[in-house]
Amino acid sequence: MVSPVTPALLRLPGVCSQVGLSKSQIYRLIRSGEFPAPVRLGPNSVAWPAEHVHAWIAGKVLASAEQRL
């Protein structure tokens, strides 16, 4: 029997590391609608679903490849 997969959550340092941007750049992109918004874990805690961050990265790679064509 296959058990359900729990989605991985990335905290801000992990997101910064994965995308290579600073926290201020990430929050600026969120405000402009260009980066996925985090989910609230508690009153003072947020995280990003890893799949949303990975999809954003994949979109950037695809857009870059299309520009080269």
From TrEMBL:
Signal peptide: none annotated. InterPro entries: AlpA (IPR010260), Prophage_regulatory_activator (IPR052931). Pfam families: Phage_AlpA. This is AlpA family transcriptional regulator.
